[in-house]
Every structure is written in structure tokens, then in C-alpha cells.
Amino acid sequence: MLILVLKFTIMNYNPINFSEKFNQFSDYWKPKVISEINNYQFKIAKIKGEFIWHTHPETDEAFIVLNGEIKIEFRDGIVKIKQGEMFVVPAGVEHKPSSENESQIMLIEPRGVVNTGENKSSNFTYENDVWI
Ligand code: NI
Question: Domain for residue 91, yes or no?
């Protein structure tokens, strides 16, 4: 018996607009999913103040600054990333993001990554797969 599996893609011809997405929430440090590519997610977040030290042993994590300027501290250094710049934190490297004033960022990482890494019960831990 021959079974044919056909995949129909329902197209949405609207672009994803960052400003429109950022206007839908005001909470800090709570990444929202806006799109996916294969098993990776594009997440956006507003951040302000200091996050906690954490690591993602299983994956790299890309930070893209869309508005503002952020800092990521490492145990042996620090990087400042401003609007129009990006930085990739390698898997397993402990890091602590912060932003003096409100910044708007995009994260690119695989589905299922916990924002607080190995610390899954921090006050900052946020649920996954919150789409806007
Ligand atoms: Ni992280």
C-alpha cells in the first residue's frame, strides 16, 4: 500500500513587525516567541536592570540589540552591545546580562531553552513558548 503524505503550507504574507510586537508587552526579562526557523526560535524581550548568572550547557545563545544598549558580564570579561550589534554567548559559558535603561533585544536559540539556564526555579525563570 502506498501512503502519500502531502504537506500543505498555509502562507501568511504579512511580515513580522518588531515595533508592533514590542508594543504588545511591557514586562522585563520575559522572552516572547515571534517566529521559528526549523527548531530554532526568534524571541524578543524588553530588559532593564540586572539578570542572574546562568549557563546554557546545551546551546549557544545569540543576542541581537534592536534598541538600547546592553551589557553581558562573564567571569573573565564583559561585552557592551548596542543597537545594531549582536553577540553570541557560547554554550556552557556563564553569563549575566544587564541593561541600565530599557533595551529591546532579540534572542535566537533552540526551542526549549530556559531563560535562566540551569537555574530553573529562579524568580527570573519564565515559561517557554509564549508566542505573541
Ligand atoms: Ni542566557
Answer: yes
Domain that holds residue 81: 18-110
What does the pLDDT read at residue 55? 97
Give the model confidence (pLDDT) of 47-95 as tens digits: 999 999 999 999 999 999 999 999 999 999 999 999 999 999 999 999 9
Between the CA of residue 102 and those of 10, 26, 28, 57, what are the distances in Å?
Answer: 36, 10, 8, 28
The alpha carbon of 55 and the centre of ligand 1 are apart by a number of angstroms equal to: 6
Distance 29 CA to ligand 1 centre (A): 11
Rounded to the nearest whole angstrom, what is the distance from the C-alpha of residue 81 to the centroid of ligand 1? 15
For the chain, what is the domain count? 1
User: What is the whole-number distance in angstroms between the Cα of residue 33 and the centre of ligand 1?
Assistant: 15
In a domain, 115, yes or no: no
Record the pTM. 0.91
